[in-house]
């Protein structure tokens, strides 16, 4: 094939890609109109049966034009997730008309390129208003920025699928009056980032946040004689390596973040678990109202009486009200040795009857209870279809 023929094909591909983008934008606009209808008629955001029917039909149509069912399924999982999240954001904005700001000042850990920075960009891309990023060097500083009205929101990592809960953040929640107003799950893809042309065997010093080292412990064990230096944020690690311009130092962070500092990846997928995700929470000075059409989570903190079975009694209240608990975390109460606070995430809305009834019961059997926030759930489970049925019915 001549270069001219190749250029012609590539030009056609570029035209098709542009056309695909236009169609996706048109589809997104239509889902906004769907959201308006759901608001008017109090219809839930997700219609799983409709999503299943859509995927089955698309799989069949895809097969007829030579597209693999798994390819079609993966592609439209992303499209459906985008549709659901945008509809939820619109419903939430309508339920909180005074909350929209022309400028969203957001505090997060590190600077540009950190995972918190990327999560901040992702979350606020669906919200109106410009974004002003405020990088901080500690979780305490992040919370204080919002408490002192120097920021409107804070984005805080609260747990990771590899390294578990981030205790410092739970401790901050114990002592603040801020409310959790949102959450998001962000994929964490660790890469070994360098500033010069080099190779893995030349690396003598490695910089990263302590949580990152924990998540990549298997890779570190294989490295051998490499000095590991912890640093306050991923962005700080990348900045340091960028400024040093040496072939024997590297940072661990995201390839996208490293690109902002002129770094390139020489090895990727470093985490112990290849499916590595972090859950972030968004906090603000005032709580939000979550429409009942939107799947919601509620986070509580409780302190039980000091007697056997007290925690079990509290958890039984949730079961009796058919409320699903998604997270239970304990942290010591500062100044009270051997006593703990329990942080509980449940699926449910504080405006809904079962959650209200459960809270009323818990107030009667606990020493302390506080709702830290009720917020839209952004854990969008992929739509499942009976792929075998879709395939056989189309043959």
Automatic annotation (TrEMBL):
The segment(s) forming the ACT domain are 299-376
In this protein, which residues make up the domain named Chorismate mutase?
1-91
Binding locations of substrate? 10, 27, 38, 47, 51, 83, 87
Q: In which pathway does it act?
A: Amino-acid biosynthesis; L-phenylalanine biosynthesis; phenylpyruvate from prephenate: step 1/1; Metabolic intermediate biosynthesis; prephenate biosynthesis; prephenate from chorismate: step 1/1
Looking up SUPFAM superfamilies in the UniProt record yields: ACT-like, Chorismate mutase II, Periplasmic binding protein-like II
* The UniProt record lists the keyword Magnesium: no
Q: Tell me, which GO biological process terms does this entry list?
A: chorismate metabolic process; L-phenylalanine biosynthetic process
Q: Which reaction does it catalyse?
A: prephenate + H(+) = 3-phenylpyruvate + CO2 + H2O; chorismate = prephenate
Show the coiled coil region(s).
Answer: 13-40
Enzyme Commission identifier(s): 4.2.1.51, 5.4.99.5
Give the Pfam families listed for this entry: ACT, CM_2, PDT
Q: Which UniProt key words apply to this protein?
A: Amino-acid biosynthesis, Aromatic amino acid biosynthesis, Coiled coil, Cytoplasm, Isomerase, Lyase, Multifunctional enzyme, Phenylalanine biosynthesis
A GO term from the CC aspect: cytoplasm
Question: Where's it mainly located?
Answer: cytoplasm
Q: Which GO terms describe its molecular function?
A: chorismate mutase activity; prephenate dehydratase activity
InterPro entries linked: ACT-like_dom_sf (IPR045865), ACT_dom (IPR002912), Chor_mutase/pphenate_deHydtase (IPR008242), Chorismate_II_sf (IPR036263), CM_dom_sf (IPR036979), CM_II_prokaryot (IPR002701), CM_P_1 (IPR010952), Preph_deHydtase (IPR001086)
Superkingdom of source: Bacteria
Q: Where in the cell is it found?
A: Cytoplasm
Query: Where in the numbering of this chain does the Prephenate dehydratase domain appear?
Result: 105-285
Biological role stated in the UniProt entry: Catalyzes the Claisen rearrangement of chorismate to prephenate and the decarboxylation/dehydration of prephenate to phenylpyruvate.
Spell out the PANTHER family in the cross-references: PREPHENATE DEHYDRATASE P PROTEIN (PTHR21022), PREPHENATE DEHYDRATASE-RELATED (PTHR21022:SF19)
- Supply the name of the protein: Bifunctional chorismate mutase/prephenate dehydratase
Q: Which organism is it from?
A: Salinimonas marina
Gene symbol of the encoding locus: pheA
